[in-house]
Amino acid sequence: MGAVLVFVGLAVGFFVHVYAIVAYMVSATSGLPDEEQGLATGLTTMSMQIAITLGIPVISAVISARTAALEKTGSETDAVLGGVRAGVLVDALFLLAAAAIVWLFLARKARTGKGAL
């Protein structure tokens, strides 16, 4: 039963992630002149790579720190699960913050009719 739950969770996460990437790329490159499409695509791809490069170590550090703290008080299995929960929570908070920032800039752009930056 546990393997089925993991598979379902991974499948849902995969489809949401792919949907978000496509939406991000379309939003970043929509409405630009042809001569700026390559630059916008490059900057968008670079920002994703930087986020991955910084995100993995940060989330790993959170998981490790929380696991180490919980190992002192309980079983190793509970400690690892608690560490993963903390890592997922931090990741979710980063995603919500990023979504809020994007929403603010897109809403500003829609109100003014100009670029947000």
- The average pLDDT value, as a whole number, equals 85
Query: Roughly how much helix do the residues carry, as a percent range?
Result: over 70%
User: The biggest beta sheet, please?
Assistant: none
What is the chain-wise order of helices and strands? Answer: HHH
Secondary structure tally: strands? 0
Taking pLDDT < 50 over at least 5 consecutive residues as the criterion, the unreliable ranges are none
| Rg over alpha carbons | 19 Å
Structural class: mainly alpha
Proportion in β-strands: under 5%
The outline comes out as elongated
Counting DSSP H or I runs of 4 or more residues, the number of helices is: 3
Alpha carbon gap, first and last residue: 49 Å
List key phrases describing it.
mainly alpha, 117 residues
Topology:
Elements lengths: L1 H28 L4 H38 L4 H37 L5
What do these coordinates show?
By secondary structure, the protein is mainly alpha-helical. The protein has helices spanning 2-29, 34-71, 76-112. The protein is built from three helices and no strands. The termini are far apart. 3% of the residues are buried.
Task: Quickly describe the structure.
The protein is mostly helical. The protein has three helices and no strands.
